[in-house]
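queue> pop job 88
queue> type: inverse folding (structure -> sequence)
queue> payload:
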């Protein structure tokens, strides 16, 4: 196995600045910890993100032959990856994230998963959010359990410390600790969790799975929008003000960059930022984004998945812009329930796999690095001969952020059936 841990050096930064043209309209800000309250934004990409597309291992000799037309070319080639460290790059649609990496504000974690291996969206998401090894093992989520272990607030009193930007509170935030729930201003017409359950039910029917995946991505299902007003708090009276029924006008800075304000992720990110900026507002926000189940017509540098990456990049840029200097104290965790197969399937897509990539970004992180242990893509290195092998348990990532960033008092209460070993921490947070 190959250990990777590649900090940005001055030479690598200078040699890579040409790639910044892809995101030259976006602001470059280097953040420093200010001593304000630690904040966390969790972005859940539902549907199983293809980590080999988001962070292509272009330097692995087996990658291009297995991912075939879905593979992202080497940096410098037409539609090539945005270079990171010689082995890995970022998808060319993730220009904002590449800028954050070069600025030392983004960490990439590859080959990340949990011990769960049955490739069901519903069960995989349940495990991702409950922090255990099996689905349906508990009715509460690890982030709600973390809330109960945090030091008392210095301001904000007993108002809710976390918000779900979602029509329903996701499992990750369910539990005894009170949280706020706000519906995003623009949501898809189709219940993507229901579609994921249907996909699981018919997972052995290749024709049905392919047609369902295609349908999810069509304009009839994936692009229609319904205006939804602010939701009711998940607990009793909240001191966080309600959001307006219509999106607020973009700031002068956002208007100058030309960032879209209608993307689903951008709308949710801006709502999260507004709530976190408010007096006594939440310190933790969870954003959900579906549409990552790419069984058919996935695309490579362009196409369906590339469009989703563009939306993700815009959404994270909107979050950074709207939080402004508060990003000094914010960590953003991007995660997905599992990855996808290393080999392209017969429908020019990928099927449910095992390990994937996570990303951690923001002012407090020790960024400009790719962390972990690369298992390789040769057949004997794959999980069950088809999937990227797990080398980092994502509960260690969650535990490190809870302890080193949020300041939880007892991380063992958050993950009761996982032995927390600080020796497995990656050094994600600058101290």
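queue> result:
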């Amino acid at each position: 196995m190959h250990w990777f841990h590649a900090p940005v050096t001055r030479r690598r930064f200078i040699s890579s600045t040409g790639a910044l043209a892809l995101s030259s309209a976006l602001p470059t800000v280097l953040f420093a910890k200010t001593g304000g309250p630690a904040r966390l934004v969790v972005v859940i990409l539902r549907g199983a993100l293809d980590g080999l597309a988001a962070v292509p291992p272009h330097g692995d000799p087996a990658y291009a032959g297995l991912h075939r037309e879905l593979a992202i070319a080497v940096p410098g080639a037409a539609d090539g990856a945005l270079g990171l460290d010689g082995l890995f790059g970022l998808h060319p649609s993730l220009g904002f994230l590449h800028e954050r990496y070069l600025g030392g504000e983004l960490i990439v974690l590859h080959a990340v998963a949990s011990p769960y291996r049955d490739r069901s969206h519903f069960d995989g998401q349940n495990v991702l959010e409950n922090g255990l090894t099996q689905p349906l093992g508990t009715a509460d989520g690890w982030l709600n359990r973390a809330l109960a272990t945090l030091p008392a607030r210095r301001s904000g009193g007993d108002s809710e410390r976390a918000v779900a930007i979602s029509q329903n509170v996701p499992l990750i935030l369910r539990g005894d600790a009170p949280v706020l729930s706000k519906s995003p201003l623009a949501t898809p017409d189709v219940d993507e969790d229901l579609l994921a359950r249907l996909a699981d039910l018919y997972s052995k029917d290749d024709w049905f799975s392919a047609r369902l995946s295609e349908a999810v991505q069509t304009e009839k299902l994936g692009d229609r929008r319904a205006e939804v007003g602010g939701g009711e708090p998940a607990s009793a009276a909240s001191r966080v003000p309600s959001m307006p029924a219509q999106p607020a006008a973009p700031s002068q800075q956002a208007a100058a960059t030309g960032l879209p304000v209608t993307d689903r992720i951008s709308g949710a990110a801006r709502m999260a930022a507004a709530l976190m900026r408010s007096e006594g507002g939440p310190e933790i926000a969870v954003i959900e984004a579906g549409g990552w189940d790419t069984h058919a017509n996935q695309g490579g540098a362009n196409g369906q998945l590339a469009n989703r990456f563009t939306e993700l990049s815009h959404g994270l840029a909107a979050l950074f812009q709207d939080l402004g200097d508060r990003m000094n104290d914010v960590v953003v965790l991007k995660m997905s329930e599992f990855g996808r197969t290393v080999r392209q399937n017969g429908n020019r897509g990928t099927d449910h796999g095992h390990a994937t990539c996570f990303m951690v970004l923001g002012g407090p992180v020790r960024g400009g690095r790719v962390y972990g242990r690369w298992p390789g893509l040769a057949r004997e290195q794959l999980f069950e001969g088809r999937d990227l092998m797990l080398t980092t348990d994502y509960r260690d990532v969650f535990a490190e952020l809870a302890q080193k960033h949020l300041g939880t008092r007892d991380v063992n209460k958050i993950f009761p059936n996982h032995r927390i070993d600080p020796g497995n921490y990656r050094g994600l947070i600058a101290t």
